[in-house]
Design goal:
CATH topology of one domain: Lipocalin
Structural class: alpha+beta
CATH architecture of one domain: Beta Barrel
Helix content: 10-25%
Strand order of the largest sheet: 2-3-4-5-6-7-8-9
Number of strands: 10
Distance between the termini: 53 Å
Largest sheet: 8 strands, antiparallel, barrel
Number of helices: 2
Order of helices and strands: HHEEEEEEEEEE
């Protein structure tokens, strides 16, 4: 009798686990397609000029971050720092200028698109940093890659 109860418990636990882990063919295809779309990324390879609010900014990639500087009175001053958060190209943008934090990524054309929360209006604001030319001419600024 004891063995029968153990067997029934094992069968019941296995069937409950199986119901939670079964994924339909449609769900599998949707997940796969979504993951494939998210892996196309623009990778910044060298210092490049971007424009935001009619101001030129230098995006300079480093080992673990991208530094953003601007020219003020002939001197390069810090504007923001981008730190990659995930393998699919998302970055956190922090700035010594304000306490705002933005979250964004490079689009297929190389522009950097961020979303910043405005607490006064309780809304998210999209900001686009438009890609310009490399700081040193004659080389490739970015590359779209597809990780498979």
């Amino acid at each position: 009798m004891k063995n029968l109860l153990y067997a029934l418990g094992f069968i019941l636990a296995g069937s409950l686990y199986g119901q939670d882990t079964l994924i339909s063919k449609v769900e599998q295809n949707t997940t796969l397609e979504t993951n494939q779309v998210a892996t196309d990324q623009f990778i910044l390879r060298e210092a490049t000029l971007f424009t935001f609010n009619n101001e030129e900014l230098h995006f300079t990639p480093g080992e673990n971050e991208i530094l953003i500087t601007r020219n003020q009175n002939g001197k390069e001053t810090p504007y923001a720092t981008l730190r990659q958060t995930t393998d699919d190209g998302f970055f956190i943008m922090t700035s010594p200028i304000s306490d705002d934090v933005s979250y964004g990524r490079f689009d297929k054309d190389g522009n950097f698109r961020t979303f910043r929360y405005n607490s006064e209006q309780d809304e998210f604001i999209e900001e686009v940093y438009t890609i310009g030319k490399p700081v040193s001419s004659g080389s490739q600024i970015g590359l779209k890659i597809n990780k498979q």
